[in-house]
Recover the amino acids of this structure.
């Protein structure tokens, strides 16, 4: 990516929201003193939840939270792309469609009709999709939610004119570095750590529980081996499918792993 | 053209400093409001549908994703509903620590709302970043209190957004005593800061308003209700969570993706001011004394007192967390074993923005058959529209457009609407052919 942004003046930064829980924006709103410092270093020109409103303006960097889930969203993300030098989706909704992508494949129209008495007034696409399905993205930050340090690292890299670092290694590596006993080996708990991207700091194994894959797939994830391990721990095929079909259900690696198990079940 | 004949059309396409996406349409013809709609167009996320078939062990992690600002409310409400159905008796340690965990969320969410979302309005600022230039000490104090709330959530959940510590039956882990000692000192040091925050919030000049409305909040025999109690109404009604449907109803209107709630056909208020109206007698003495000092008379009929109400609840939450952590011990086990059973689980708690109600039908294997969740913002939606009407009439419809718009936004922010929450749960009227 061309990561050089003009740092002789404060770069113009926008934070946009699509379908989401607002939790990734909190990576900024929870920064405390660092938020005030950040506002000195960059010009936050659009960030509706924090106050500044100027969605149509040209920016150096646009951070995008949320997934594309309505026809209007498609137009809006294309517009944002045209007005942003760098576009960076943040969080599971923006990188993989989010937990709401569990509706993909279900009968969305029927769901709307079951929930709303005026279904005609509800604008909703059948699929919840990541930003990269619609426009070119320059970098992605995975995680549900992304953390403050992750966000600051990206901003710092851009201010220094270097490409942000992308840690696609597995949660297991963080777990080992922190010296946690492996919950799967020592206690037989079905942990997603071996196929899940690092970045959280191995929080779940740190509490003695299973990783549930909220950072999405790691690079070179051996989902076949993990699915076999889950089966040997006694998980039924349906439960193994649900392990892969949760926060990041539409991430291609997790979707393929789930489909493979489903297909085997149908044979 | 006289002011009486003026036609005003105010359209606020994106409401700033609220959580999620909403807009406002106001039309005034011949000196009368002819259209007033809070439009919520945050796309629906269908949580209730995709919870179907999921195992109970997954529910706390899934429902957290409804809201990044109040995930604890969703996790704790779901856990308590299911624990009651499964006949689980929590260890007293876990029961107490759920309240501490929840206090962390109140502190974080309220401080975020006061300083980052609401207060800039009253100082002619568009953001907290601007406000920090004219009130640097107050904003920084607010950010410190918010950070302490986050730290309390992290103590039990490892992170404050979508924490990972809650399990059905208790918590996954228990913090060591050393960390508790550390946070107790911080809580103690924060008490005078929160007291100063209340005095500051009370000193902010707000509009005078006087409206009749029904307040709904949980009520507990001893505590200021947060995570347990009956549902209470200002007319004296007291009901268990499972009687909710007998008194409250939800309805879809075409201009919103959130449902409108009513109590016996009328709009009602949930949230900090409703809680303070119903439960001020349950505040600890120190908090009561400070509240008296502010001159706030309760029950209040002015929604602009919500700012002070949040500040008061921050002090209460700090006080509660400190008392409960003073008695902290490391438990033998942070959780008790659970066996699922089929049936209907209902539960409610007081989320930062007000009453949050869950209902799950579960099967024998502990999987969700169907789910229904009623969040605070959809309950407040009808009240917000009613308030806007009354408040605008009181404010004066002949004011300039910009003043009308700002006033409307201030009114809406009094409710701290969480639009992300409101649209993630929608009532099911299932008709199967």
């Amino acid at each position: 990516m061309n990561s050089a942004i003009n740092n002789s003046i404060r770069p113009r930064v926008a934070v946009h929201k699509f379908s989401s829980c607002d939790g990734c924006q909190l990576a900024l709103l929870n920064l405390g003193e660092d938020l005030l410092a950040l506002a000195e270093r960059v010009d936050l020109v659009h960030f509706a939840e924090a106050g500044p409103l100027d969605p149509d303006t040209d920016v150096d960097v646009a951070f995008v939270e949320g997934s594309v889930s309505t026809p209007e969203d498609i137009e809006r993300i294309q517009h944002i792309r045209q007005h942003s030098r760098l576009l960076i989706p943040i969080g599971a909704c923006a990188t993989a469609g989010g937990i709401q992508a569990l509706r993909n494949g279900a009968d969305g129209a029927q769901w709307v009709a079951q929930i709303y008495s005026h279904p005609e007034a509800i604008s909703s696409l059948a699929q919840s999709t990541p930003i990269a399905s619609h426009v070119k993205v320059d970098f992605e930050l995975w995680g549900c939610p992304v953390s403050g340090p992750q966000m600051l690292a990206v901003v710092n890299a851009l201010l220094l004119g270097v490409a942000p670092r992308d840690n696609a290694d597995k949660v297991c590596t963080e777990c080992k570095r922190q010296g946690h006993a492996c919950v799967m080996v020592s206690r037989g708990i079905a942990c997603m750590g071996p196929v899940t991207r690092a970045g959280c700091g191995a929080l779940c194994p740190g509490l003695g529980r299973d990783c549930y894959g909220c950072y999405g797939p790691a690079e070179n994830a051996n989902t076949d081996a993990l699915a076999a391990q889950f089966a040997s721990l006694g998980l039924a095929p349906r439960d193994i499918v649900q392990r892969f079909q949760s926060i990041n259900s539409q991430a291609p690696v997790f979707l393929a792993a789930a489909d493979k198990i489903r297909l085997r079940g149908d044979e | 053209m006289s002011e009486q004949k003026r036609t005003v059309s105010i359209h606020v396409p994106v409401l700033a400093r609220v959580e999620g996406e909403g807009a406002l349409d106001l039309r005034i013809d011949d000196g009368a409001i002819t259209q007033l709609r809070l439009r919520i167009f945050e796309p629906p996320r269908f949580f209730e549908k995709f919870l179907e078939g999921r195992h109970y062990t997954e529910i706390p992690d899934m429902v957290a994703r409804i809201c990044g600002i109040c995930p604890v409310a969703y996790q704790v409400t779901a856990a308590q509903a299911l624990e009651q159905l499964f006949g689980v008796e929590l260890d007293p340690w876990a029961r107490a620590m759920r309240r501490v965990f929840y206090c962390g969320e109140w502190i974080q969410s309220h401080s975020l709302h006061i300083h980052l979302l609401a207060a800039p309005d009253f100082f002619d600022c568009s953001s907290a970043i601007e406000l920090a230039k004219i009130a640097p000490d107050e904003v920084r104090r607010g950010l410190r209190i918010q950070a302490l709330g986050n730290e309390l959530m992290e103590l039990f959940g490892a992170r404050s957004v979508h924490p990972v510590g809650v399990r059905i039956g208790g918590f996954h882990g228990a913090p060591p005593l050393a960390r508790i000692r550390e946070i107790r000192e911080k809580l103690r040091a924060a008490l005078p800061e929160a007291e100063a925050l209340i005095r500051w919030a009370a000193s902010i000049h707000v509009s005078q308003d006087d409206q009749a409305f029904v307040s709904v909040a949980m009520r507990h025999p001893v505590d200021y209700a947060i995570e347990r109690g009956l549902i209470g109404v200002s007319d004296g009604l007291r009901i268990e969570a499972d009687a909710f449907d007998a008194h409250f109803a939800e309805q879809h209107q075409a201009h919103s993706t959130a449902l409108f709630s009513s109590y016996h056909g009328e709009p009602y208020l949930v949230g900090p001011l409703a809680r303070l109206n119903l439960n001020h007698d349950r505040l600890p003495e120190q908090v009561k004394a400070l509240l008296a000092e502010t001159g706030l008379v309760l029950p209040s009929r002015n929604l602009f007192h919500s700012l002070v109400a949040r500040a008061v609840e921050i002090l209460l939450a700090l006080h509660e967390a400190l008392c409960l952590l003073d008695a902290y011990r490391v438990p033998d086990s942070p959780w008790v074993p659970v066996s699922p059973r089929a049936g209907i689980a209902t539960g409610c708690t007081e989320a930062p923005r007000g009453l949050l109600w869950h209902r799950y039908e579960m099967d024998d294997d502990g999987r969700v058959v169907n789910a229904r969740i009623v969040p605070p913002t959809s309950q407040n939606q009808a009240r917000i529209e009613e308030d806007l009407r009354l408040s605008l009439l009181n404010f004066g419809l002949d004011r300039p457009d910009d003043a009308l718009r700002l006033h409307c936004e201030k009114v809406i922010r009094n409710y701290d609407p969480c639009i992300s929450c409101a649209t993630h749960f929608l009532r099911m009227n299932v008709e199967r052919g």
